[in-house]
Amino acid sequence: MTARLAFSATNVFQRNYHSKKKIVINRGGTRSSKTHSISQILANWLATGWVREHQHIPVGKATVVRKSGSSLKGTAMYTFKKAISTMMVNGQPLTNYIKEHKTDRTFTYMGRSIVFIGADQEQKLRGNECDILYCNEANELSYLKEFFQLNVRCKYVSFIDFNPSDPYTWINEDLEQKRMVTKGDVEVIHSTYIDNLEHLTEEQISEIEYLEESAPDLWAVYGLGEYGLVEGLIFPTIHIIDEMPTELRRRGYGQDLGYSIDPTTILNCGTIGNNLYVDEIFYQRGLLKDDILDKYRDHYISKTRRINSDYGNRMIDEIGNEGYNIHQAIKMPIIEGISILKQYKIHVTARSAGLIKEQKLYKYKVNKSGDIVTNAKGHPVPIDKWNHGWDALRYYGEYHLKSIVKRRGARAGSV
C-alpha cells in the first residue's frame, strides 16, 4: 500500500525534512515545535519509508534515545504518540496501522520499527545499530560514552534537539564549532516559539515573552534559542534517579494547588540521612477539587500520611473533609524554606518532568550585570515563576525538615 499521509506541520518539520546532512541539530527555545517536528519526521518514515525528501529507507530501524529510560514515557514517547494521533493515512488515523509493543517500547509497521531506549540502559545501548537516530534533550548525554557510540553505529541520519542553556556543551564545541567546519556534515536548525505560534495559546505566548523583561538570561535561551548561561538558579544541581528508595524516613507529601493556568502538583518525599528524595506524582493544569480527588485515588494517595499544601487555600478544607490528612503549610519567608531544602542533597525521579523542567528555570532575580539582587536583609530574591513543584517541596521541607536543620545549626536564609 502506498501511504498518503496528511498532517499539520510547522516550518521546523519542513527544514528537517529537506535537510541533507548526516547530523541535524535542532537548537531552539521552548515550545518551538522541535521535538514534535522530529517526532513527525519519524512517524512519516514509519508510515511511508521516507525519512527525508531525498532519503527513502523502506526497511529499517530508528532509535530514540534520552538520558533516562524511565523518563521516556512522559517525554519523547508521549510526544511521538501525540504526533501519530493527529496524522492520517489514506483517510484513516495512523494509529490504526502502527503496532505498539509496550514492553519493548517499540512501534512497527511494514518492516520498519522505532525503538525508545534510555542511555542508562547500557545493555540496550551498547552495540545499538540503527538507520536513523534521534537524541532527545541531547545535552543531557555525554559525548564520547553515549552520543559518539550511537552516532558511529547509525547508518544514515542523526537528529538531536535541546535547549542551549550551556554554551560549553559538546553539541556546540564538538559538533557546531568543530565538525561542522572540518567535516561539513552538520546542519543546525534554529527555532523559537515564533515558529509555532499557531499551535500556542495566548497564555503560553505571554508566559514566554514575560521572560524578556523579567529574566533576560532565560529569555536568551528559552525565548530566542541562543546559547547562554542561566544565572542565579536557585537549585543549580539535582540528582536524577530511576526509583524512590524503600527505606525512607520522614515520609510525606508536598502539594501546590493551581488554577486554570498554574499547575497543581503533589510530590512524594522522604529522606535518608542528608539526602532528600522526591517523586512527582502529578503535575497538571486546570484541576478542580473533584479532579484532584480523582488523581488522589488514581495514584493511591495515603489518607494517613501528611500532605502539606499551600496556605490560604479554601480547597484544603474541602479535601480534608474527604478524609485526607492535609494541612496548610507553615507560613515562613520563602527564602527560609529554600535554605532548609539547600541543606540536603536532592534526588528527583526521572519521571518528575514538571519539577525537572522548573529546576532549569527557577531562579533568583539578577541585575543587568548578572549579579543576584538582594533585599533589605541581604537575602537573595526568588522570582515568583516556574516554582510550583519547588513550592510543594518547600511546604514538605518546612514541616518535616525545619527542626532537623535547626538542630544542625544551619543559618536561616543561607543560600
Mean pLDDT comes to 91
Strand fraction equals 15-25%
Q: Report the radius of gyration as a whole number of Å.
A: 23 Å
Q: Structural class, judged by helices and strands?
A: alpha/beta
Distance between the termini: 62 Å
The main sheet orders its strands as: 8-9-10-5-11-12-2-13
Tally the helices: what do you get? Answer: 15
Number of strands: 20
- General form: globular
Low-confidence stretches: none
Q: Please bin the fraction of helical residues.
A: 25-40%
Main sheet summary: 8 strands, mixed
Which descriptors apply to this entry?
415 residues; 15 helices; eight-stranded mixed β-sheet; alpha/beta
Describe the structure.
This protein is of the alpha/beta class and 415 residues long. Helix content is 31%, strand content 25%. The chain has 15 helices and 20 strands. The protein has helices spanning 11-17, 34-48, 76-85, 122-125, 143-152, 170-182, 202-209, 211-214, 216-223, 289-298, 315-320, 334-341, 353-359, 388-400, 402-408, and strands at 5-6, 23-28, 50-52, 55-56, 60-66, 88-89, 92-93, 99-101, 106-109, 112-118, 130-135, 154-162, 186-191, 239-241, 249-256, 263-272, 275-285, 307-309, 326-328, 345-349. A hairpin with a 2-residue loop joins strand 3 (50-52) and strand 4 (55-56). Helix 12 crosses helix 14 (388-400). It is globular and about 65 Å long. The N and C termini lie far apart (62 Å).
Offer a concise description of the structure.
The protein is of the alpha/beta class and 415 residues long. The protein has 15 helices and 20 strands.
